[in-house]
Amino acid sequence: MSSITVAKVLNNNVIIAEHPQHAEVVVIGKGIGFNRKTRDRINLSSVEKMFILRSQEEQEQYKQLVPQVDEKLIEVVQEIVLHIMQSSRQPLNEHIHIALTDHISFAIRRSEQHIAIHNPFLYETREIYPEEYSLAEYAVERINEVMEVTLPPDEIGFVALHIVSALSNRHISEVKQHSQLIGDMVGLVEDSLEYRIPRESLDYSRLVTHLRFVLERLRRGETVRETSSLDGLMKREYPEMYMLAWKLTKVIEQRVHIPVYPAEVSYLTIHLQRLAQKKEDETGMEE
């Protein structure tokens, strides 16, 4: 029967072990290191909850991180990661153990020092990644409860991006870049229309969702069918919104370095025209 051999106990919840298939590994499990000594053998079948960091680089980073953080944090992050795996039913990039532990540890320190970090893309993150945002709400709620802290709502957005990164196997910087890009584009639309789109409105949700799908199509390399008749109609009927849509696609091209299909301009014009009409209707009602 397969077992692991304890090489080093980092704390009650984390050990370095020799694994029959994966050589040296970091094993994370509630109480797995309690009363363990070097060379102790642990039957794999008796370990109910375990995560194995197989990458040597990930292991070294985690070994350095563990002594710097509260054991309770290791435990609650493990619980959160399990919850994410069970809820999403998708494999997670193992780096989330390091990224989330490190991020939350730093966030708690900031909170204790009363240093507030504003998240300018909170609404965009919630709209673009609703499922991950919901998981992040659970995570922050559990952290506040277990660690007896009060992390601000802004942290939900940051944690959501880490969850997106782990589920999609994309680097956190790329995930952040997309949220920031969408936030910047919404700002450009609002400046052009001289109209602030209510963040809880269906209009805002539609616009952000559309921009998200444009970026997702580009990331996956999907082609968008040309519709020359629609393109001509949009250009003729709504020249201002067509020009704004064209500007937005140019911003996308500059930031992600991928050419945008011309058909995207036409579809985006339809969304922008709906917003422009909404503004006119509201202005007319005020008068």
From TrEMBL:
Domain PRD: start-end pairs: 68-173, 174-282
Keyword Repeat belongs to the record: yes
Keyword Heme in record: no
One Pfam short name: CAT_RBD
Keyword terms of this UniProt record: Repeat
InterPro entries found in the cross-reference section: BglG_antiterminators (IPR050661), CAT_RNA-bd_dom (IPR004341), CAT_RNA-bd_dom_sf (IPR036650), PRD (IPR011608), PRD_sf (IPR036634)
Name of the protein: PRD domain-containing protein
